[in-house]
Amino acid sequence: MFAIVLGMLIVVFGVLFLRLHAFLALFFATLVVAAATATHSVSESVLLHCTAQVDAISGKQLDLSEVGKDLAAKPGAYYLVSNVEAITKSTSPLVWIERFEVADDSATAFLGEELPENVVAVGARLVPHDKYQHAVQLAKTSPINRVANALGDTFGKIGLLIAMASIIGQCLLASGAAERIVQTIRQAMGEKWTALAFVVSSFVLAIPVFFDTVFFLMLPLAQAMARKTGRDYLKYVMSIIVGGSLAHSLVPPTPGPLFVATELNVSIGAMAIGGIGVGIWGVIAGYFYMLWANRRWQIPLRLDAPETPPHESTDLDQPREPQLPSFGLSILPVVVPIFLLGMKTVSQTWLSDFDGPWMPFWNSTISFFGDKNIALSLGAVLALLTLLGKPQMTWAGLGKSVQKALSEGGVVVLITCAGGAFGEMIRQTNVGATIAQSLPESVGGTGLLVTAFLVTVIIRVIQGSATVAMIAAIGIVVPVATQIGLPFHPVYLALAIGCGSKPLPWMNDSGFWVISRMSGFTEKETLKTFSVLLTIMGVVSFLATLVCAICFPFV
Asked: Which residue of 171, 204, 306, 329 is most buried, as measured by CB atoms within 10 A?
């Protein structure tokens, strides 16, 4: 536990006071946790839930209890481990199990031959050969190599996804597709519902594009509307925040929800569907608070209108039609990956029991195109084609846009991989078992959701970054969830962490200053609008997550 506390302090102190880059703070904290973790804890983390206790022996029969849920109970080679030191010294005897008979809470193993008299089996743990070898190897691995391996494992899970998402976002911006999406939605809803159009547009754009970028893109539209109407500037600014902020924390492929879903083995499609499902309630709550705040406080547009080149129009009703792609082409890079991921989730959840001559072909097709890496890569190809269709676009210009996307995405990949390594080092401390034993029995199910939400909120308030809060929280929550078990689909735990990254943003959050400086709000105005808005949205979305977990556990 000391190692974890020390690691958390390094992250918070490094980001908040030393102003270290998040990657460096997470990397140094990860290295310290790895170095401070005892060898036996590292070994125990590998064997968690995959062993059985030997209670008695009679001839070739072993009576087992405390059978781990991950113990395959298949014939093969097993070790009899009397204590943790036996693992580090590789002195445990090897036996051959011919078969198992498994009951609800116990099992019986039948040996290939009787044990020698000098082997004490009662009280020992039965460990599969592969898990034992992994535990021995990991215990002998140096801290820096364990950190490096964890960095590589995390990159293998999400590196390509973040790269493809970055390309999609950059191409949408450079091609004018993002502008087309906003203009089309606004024109379809009419000027009376401009704020709602901004909500919908920012929510859609924040799925593949980082929230800060969405805000930069849409803020000039909000300011233009405020100049045109002479009022409601606060409403237009807050409408962008209402739509974009929750998608940033709940709907992949943005880094936070993508990483949390990956660590919990939740499919990207399930995370996207769940994020939209619970996020919509937070958006509704935020929308009504936006309307109330706009009536309560009249915040003027204090920024001067920017000078506009002669060839560009400032009229929102007259977009640069010849230069913008069609709405259908603009929305494809966003819709196609979500559709493919969603179809794979639906197929695995509801169509798995169907039997028909066409099902093998359907399953193989949707498994390929619904793979998260394939789906995001197809979205990136569509985004590149959209940018390539822009007038005067050259291959050199296309290459520069991709270079910019990968440069920005590379930083995010480094931060996320460092967070993944940090979580893995926390897991290797075997803290999950310690925390689970100290928690009351009521902390399971919805109690664990509340715990995950509050842990994320605390980390978010302390260090400011929503993404770092999610990455740090998952490293603490996953070992506990693994130890306790979940009576509902793990997507709800991922959503609870995402909701916890929203409340109480203040001066240590870079997003706070982006909103304040770009919109012209004072610090006090930003606190009572932006900070309160995100808190309400996060809490309401979390309550929706709780209700869904109770009513629709999907297990």
From this structure: 171
Tokens of 481: 């969830």
**CB neighbour list of residue 534: distance below 8 Å, 6 or more residues apart:** 241, 245, 286, 502, 503, 504, 505
Record the tokens describing residue 166, joined without a space.
């970055």
Q: 544 pLDDT band (50/70/90 cuts)?
A: very high
DSSP line for 326-384: PHHHHHHHHHHHHHHHHHHHHHHHHSTT---TTHHHHHHHHHHHTSHHHHHHHHHHHHH
Tell which residue, 252, 206, 254, 255, has the closest CA to residue 420.
Answer: 255
Write 9-13 long-range contacts (CB < 8 A, 24+).
Answer: 11/422, 11/463, 11/468, 11/472, 12/462, 12/463
pLDDT tens sequence across 205-251? 777 667 777 777 777 777 777 777 778 889 989 998 998 888 888 98
Q: What's the rounded Cα separation, in Å, for the pair 1 and 423?
A: 14
Q: Whole-angstrom Cα distance, residue 13 to residue 158?
A: 27
106 and 64 Cβ atoms separated by less than 8 Å = yes
Sign of CA dihedral 88, 37, 413, 503: positive
Query: How many CB atoms are closer than 10 A to CB 249?
Result: 32
Give me the residue label for tokens 């087309």. 180
Question: Could you tell me whether strands 94-102 and 76-81 are parallel, antiparallel, or unpaired per DSSP bridges?
Answer: antiparallel
Q: What is the pLDDT of residue 535?
A: 95
Q: Is a pLDDT exceeding 90 seen at residue 495? A: yes
> Which pLDDT does position 307 carry in this prediction?
46
Among 171, 248, 170, CA closest to 204: 248
